[in-house]
Fold this protein.
Amino acid sequence: MLKFIALRLLQGMLVLLGIYAVTFVLVAATPGSPFSSERAIAPEILAQIEAFYGYDKPLGERFITSLGNVLQGEFGPSAVYANRTVTQIIAESFPVSIKLGSISLLLALVLGVPAGILAAVKRNTWLDYLPMSVSMAGICLPTFVMGPLLALVFGLILKMLPVAGWYGPEYVVLPATTLGLYYAAYFARLTRGGMLEMLNQDWVRTARAKGVPEHTIIWKHCLKGGLIPAITFLGPALAGIISGSFVVETIFQIPGLGQWFVRAALNRDDFLVLGLTVLFAAMIVIMNLLVDIVQVALNPRLKYD
Amino acid sequence: MTDHSETAVLGKDSAPVIAEEELVEGSSLWKDAWARLRKNKVAVGSLVVFVLICLFCVLGPFLSPYDSNAQDLFSGAEGPSADHWFGTDTLGRDLMVRVMVGGRISLMVGLVATVVALAIGVIYGATAGYIGGKVDASMMRFVDLLYALPFTIFVILLMVAFGRSMWLMFVAIGCVEWLSMARIVRSGVLSLKKQEFVEAAVSLGYSHSRIILRHLIPNVLGPVIVIATLTVPAVMLLEAFLSFLGLGVQPPNASWGVLINEGQANMEIYPWLLLFPAAFFAVTLFCLNFIGDGLRDALDPKSAKD
Amino acid sequence: MPLLDVDDLTTYFHTRDGVVRAVDGVSFNLERGETLGIVGESGSGKSVTCYSLMRLIPEPPGRIERGTAMFDGRDLLQMSPKELRKVRGDKISMIFQDPMTSLNPYLRISTQLIEALQMHRDIDSKAALNKAIEALEEVGIPGASKRVFSYPHEFSGGMRQRVMIAMALITEPDLLIADEPTTALDVTVQAQIMEIIKQRQNDLGTAVILVTHDLGVVAGSCDKVLVMYGGREMESGSADQIFYRPRHPYTRALQKTIPSLQEKGQELFTIPGLPPDVSKPIHGCAFHPRCPYPKIGSPEGERPQLEDIEPGHCWAACGFCDSSAPIETVLAKADDHVAEPVDGDA
């Protein structure tokens, strides 16, 4: 078990290293310089600034230096927002994103998983058709359509909820719903599929032949295996919620990491892009590790090795 | 019916004869699938709606009196009217024509990027499945790794780094969406390889290319068609996402993602600017998903509902 | 009063492509401790018969159309789901064809073994576990006290079927329904499993319904035999009656297919053609198209009625062929003709 976790952690580190390298190359390949964007600067001053940030060195050396810094937890300064380091920006905005993201993910699970179980158990009744049609609609209304629509209806027409900013609990509702509903739809479909597969197994018949009541069959015999597809999807769901936050935070003007990332990418804020990419990737890698552990715990046929 | 020895002789051979027919005449499988698909009202309805949307987008601009980029600042942002059925945008451009033209690009992305994904996925998956063993294991481990990566981030960086070219976007999206395809093809090939009729073909001394052409491809085709149909909406989604962030299709060109972005910027005052493109986009995704589901049920009756 | 008295059991499946008459008016009965073999080819309705008794057929599309199944004085087919649950696993247990898929891979053997006990007996979990270990030992699983905590995938197919038997018999039921318990197993293991079933049956006095397509298995272990074809009863009687005095052409043909009963060096006999498509109505005798006997009259007509030949021995008295001669004679005659392939609706 410990060996399994250590091995997966090591693998995760390697993945992060790879991501860092690819991101570094992509950022370096972007034309122009992070410092030339704002206003015209004299070439010699620009050269000085670039030298200060180490941009006069060859690419390989820069990569090693920056990697060394990152490993020490030092992501460097923001190239565009003077006087602020990447670490400061992350420290400010990360809690916002974590809150939005975790509420969304929770919402997705709380809505999606029970709906999926219900649909599977009540297969081919309206308790199946209704949630499944709603979830199909959900899958076809991505965040950038759902967000504006929710804002339009609940914010601007019904005036029930605020549509911009990040001040109190009521500000979480629309963005978290926008992000969460989409993945609730996925979880519902995956859970339904997983549960149906379990319910159609021969051993369910065996359990019925033993006189096991239906609810015990669902909870004791089928839930473990039936949840596996949904659990496997947690990794991609987190990745999707992160990229969804780029959109949602823009629509609802939330001061989270997502908005920073899009701006940083567009403004060539190299250190910020690198820092945020590593952070996002690290979260996803950790989530995948957790998913792996849970999967082995649920499925006795898998082993920690 | 008079002489039973004949039937007895025939009976002994009848089982292998039937197996051979099933193997060679794959067409009955497709006929069955078509019959099943036609019975699926949701899928057929979706197909009809989807074809109508395609015709609307492809032919519409030729029939419309307006040019998608012709600005008319005096009739800016008017609601739907007899002249402009979908209204006009803030620059006075006819929204209906812009939805058609945007749809062309969105649909094209769907098609081109899916073909890219299809090509990569099928080649990769078939190779892994056919070779098998350690090569297969490590190739699939690589796919698992990629699955877990924040691809949208890479696509965003790629678009920033190499300019916001439409064709680059097609390829970039295709490169992201091939993973499921590879998995499906690989597992299909792998399971077929184990099946007796392939073993039989091998033992009969058929060449590799004959086995692949006659046995593997026809049998993997079903799942591939299904997954390709389902990749189209995924790809269109990613394009719209990028365009929404300003990283995809660039103005004055339009895609549904661009139009939705423009619409949501002004939705407070001009909600139709959001509603029309959003509706077209959502309905198209809806149809494609239902067609994909219908195809899956038709081509893989085991997974179909009773 | 017999332990189980089934009368006119009829189960149809209502599918999109039509009504599948899987079981069509089957009757039989079974005394305590007796063994009934139900024999037939695939698709003859023998498994559906058992599932219908346990009410385990998926509804819809399946439906038990009519009939009664009096078990210990109560009709299984009329029971409420709650009453039924009390009977299942307690009074009637079942083991299935494929032990690889019949055990839940997500739960420990121990959990699955004691489940029926917990469901039907007032027993604490420690005592239940001891009983489970005992049950495993009785079916010959070495190291039962340790292996009881294993998961199914850690057992071989034969071992899993032993676990299934232990699980089914742990509540000492009055009736065990074994649906082709050896079909999915290696030949060497098959005999062991049959031996275990027989031995446990003797220990516990359980009545057994043994479903099989292998007449050889029936010969060694059954008191009574029911021969099914196309969802219908063709012939039934004591094992001796069925083996020594088979009356129905199908029973006779089936017997010819047992390799060990044939003379050495003879070509193995197979019944030509395929079992009937039960999704289409069957007129007259179900076996008629494949029957090797000389036919008389039109194959269309009334369904043959069950007719007693001697006490306890009846057959679906078929008037469509002349089945008076032994089958050997008929087959020998047929072999004299020069075979010329004809397109067979045969």
Observations:
- The first helix of chain C runs from residue 46 to 53.
- The CA atoms of residues 12 and 90 of chain C lie 27 Å apart.
- Chain C touches chain B through 21 residues (CB under 8 Å).
- The radius of gyration of chain C is 21 Å.
